[in-house]
Structures are given as structure tokens and as C-alpha cells.
Amino acid sequence: MKKKILKNIEWGILVCAIVLCIIGLVALFSATQNSDYDEFKKQVIWLIISIPVVIVVIFIDYSFLIKISPILYGISIILLIGVLFTEPINGATSWYNIGPFSLQPSEFAKIAVVLFLTYVINKIQKRGKGEINRFLKLGLILLTLAVPLLLIIKQPDYGTALAFIFALIFMLFVAGIDKKYIITAILLVVILVPIAYFFILPDHAKARIDVFLNPDLDPRGAGYNIIQSKLAIGAGQLFGMGLFKGNQTQLGFLYPKTTDFIFAVIGEELGFIVAALVIILYVILISKMIYVAKTAKDDEGSYIVAGITGIFFFHELQNIGMTMGLLPITGIPLPFVSYGGSSLLTNLILIAIVLNVSGRRQKTLFIE
User: Fold this and answer.
1) pTM for the complete prediction?
2) Residue 247 near residue 241, CB atoms below 8 Å
3) Distance (Å) of CA 10 to CA 226, 289, 319
4) Where are the beta strands (DSSP E) in the chain?
5) Cα distances (Å, whole numbers) of residue 301 to 130, 138, 265, 307, 353
6) Which end of the chain is least crowded, N or C, by CB within 10 Å?
7) Are 268 and 236 in contact (CB under 8 A)?
8) d(C-alpha 169, C-alpha 268), whole Å
9) Which helix (H) or strand (E) holds 216?
10) Are 72 and 46 in contact (CB under 8 A)?
11) Radius of gyration of the chain (CA)
12) Rounded distance, CA 118 to CA 281, Å?
């Protein structure tokens, strides 16, 4: 059975993830030379820890993961509540500090929430394909997401909250959501965005939007990071300035260079060719995930992979977009590339779940 699973796995997905991890480690190695490579070393440790976890997750039938998802969801909610009482870091209560490491429960919640949303949607759909379009049933799905979403917003972490929303959008689309709900959602966004800007968003969030529209509005304050990021990417030109030689990276102008703006480090020191390769790898990764979602052996597999695809799609689009000044800054890491143990482990587990689903496609392959 294991051999047949391995034979049927969409290995291109794993290859893309590994290459992105390698590029990320190279960029981190250069970006952390002035701090004794501390974050680079931690990232290597997290990568080593992730390897056995990925192997185990690939071979646990995803149907079992869905069955235990209510438990995982409950644990995630408890952790998201508990983290609100921790000491704030940079104004956000998003991490548990455990010795030299920190854990971000909102990252691990991505796994639990996608699995539990799959559980809920599948239960509803078993009663009939059109059940998801019943107002109360759809409301139950939205409530399932609303609980962790509000807790994450409370931290506050608006970027991660948006990733959860994209996961649900992709899952509902695959589940056959009615067009009337899509149109209603678009209208609500159009109406609520200006209301949120003027009456709900805190000042720092509004400042990010203002700076996105006009970076020169506050070049030494809120607009500083994005200006330095664009300068770094532009300075790299075709082949880059070389490792350890980026002006914005090595002289401390680019911040935070190991997390939010790691793509700017790549653009400056490794150049347009490597930066373009990163984008191409994400396009291939997402394309292959969509293919796995379309060819999954059951609806559960399709829902899971669709949700995971939504998360990766948002992360890479938002992070690369904000470093290039195309989208507002939200503090979203670049999957597999940015520094962050919780993020790296979570992303590799999500990849393992996708490989899990792909390895169990086409049940005729299992007939002797």
C-alpha cells in the first residue's frame, strides 16, 4: 500500500517546496550574518524537525485526520484564547515563548480549521449537494470560521485572518456555492471596506493603507519599509548584488528582512532571475494543488486541498505584492522562505496533507 501511495504522489509539489526552502535558507544565511546567523540556525533546526513530521502525515489516511478534526479545532481555539494573555511582542499577542523558540498558534490553527471546515462541509453536503446553499447551513460554516478568525483579529493579526478567509472562499467554491452568495459577498465587501477603514481599523492599519496609496506620504515613518524594499529589489537588477553585498539588506535599512521582506533580500542579492524563479515555483505549486483538488478520490480530499491552496495563494500573493508596493503591508510571511519555525512546520504539514490526498487518488491503482 505504501509503495502505491508513493507512486501516485504528486512529487512536483514537494520539489517546489524543497527548492523554496533552499532559496529561503540561502537568503537567511546572508541576512543574518550580523546576528551570528541565529535565525538561520533556528530555521535549519525547524526544517530538520519537520522532516519526520511530514513523513508521518503523508501516510496517515486523511480521512482519519478529518475524523479527529473536532479535537484539533478545539485545541486550537484554547491555544488562540490563551495566547491573548501572553506578553505582547511588537504590539501583538501572537506567540508562546518556549525557551529560545516561539510558537505561533494561529499558524497551527490553519491545519485544524481547514480540516474541521472540511468535516462540517462534508457533513452538510452528505444530505444533498445543494444543502450548502441553505442559509442556515451556510451560516453554520461561517460560524465555524468566525470563532478562530475573531480570536486572531484580537491579537491583532489581520494578515493571517485574511488567509483563513481565502481558505474558506476556495473551499466553498469547490463545494458549489451559489452565485447569489458570491455576488452578495462582493457587494458586502464594497460596502464594508470603507466603513472598516473609517470606523473599525486601528490607526496603524489605516496608516499602512495610506502609505500603500502614497509611499512618499511618510517616507521616514510608515512609508519607510516599503520604500527600502522597492529600492532593494530594484538595486538587484538581473543577477543581484551578490550574497552579503546588498546595501539595504546588510546596512540595516531593510526591516524586518528575515520575515516580511525576505523577498526583497532575494531580489537585491540574488537578482531578478532568482526572484522570478521564486514566483514561478509558487505558480507551479498552486497549479499542481488545483490539479490534486480536481482529481481527489472524494469530496473531502477536494475540500482540504482547496483550502490549503487558498492559504498558499494568499500568502505568496500578499507577501510578494507588498514587498513590491503593489499591496498594503500586512506582516504576512512568504511560505517556506521567510524565517519562522511555526510557519515553516505548518506549511510543510499542509504540503504533506496535499501529498496525502494525491497519493490516494484513483482507487483503481490499488487493485492487485
Assistant:
1) 0.93
2) yes
3) 37, 9, 26
4) 96-98, 101-103
5) 19, 20, 36, 10, 9
6) C
7) yes
8) 34
9) none
10) no
11) 21
12) 27
* Closest of 315, 317, 338 to residue 327, by C-alpha: 317
Q: Report phi then psi at 330, rounded to 5.
A: -125, 0
**What pLDDT is attached to residue 368?**
33
Coil vs helix vs strand at 242 = coil
Q: Which of 247, 278, 272, 260 is nearest to 322 (CA)?
A: 260
| Residue 42 CB neighbour total at 10 angstroms | 19
Number of other CB atoms surrounding residue 202 within 10 Å: 10
Predicted confidence (pLDDT) per residue in 165-215, tens digit: 999 999 999 999 988 888 888 898 888 888 877 777 777 777 778 777 777
Q: Residue 276 has which C-alpha cell?
A: 522570478
Whether residue 364 is predicted with pLDDT greater than 50 in this model: the reply is no
* Cell of residue 213, nine digits: 496609496
Pairwise CA distance, residues 175 & 195, whole Å: 30
Cβ pair 269, 249 in contact under 8 A = yes
Q: From CA 348, how far away is CA 50, in angstroms rounded?
A: 7
Domain boundaries, given as residue ranges, for the chain = 2-366
Any idea how long the chain is? 368
Output DSSP code: residue 141.
H
Cα torsion 239, 244, 246, 248 to 10°: value is 150
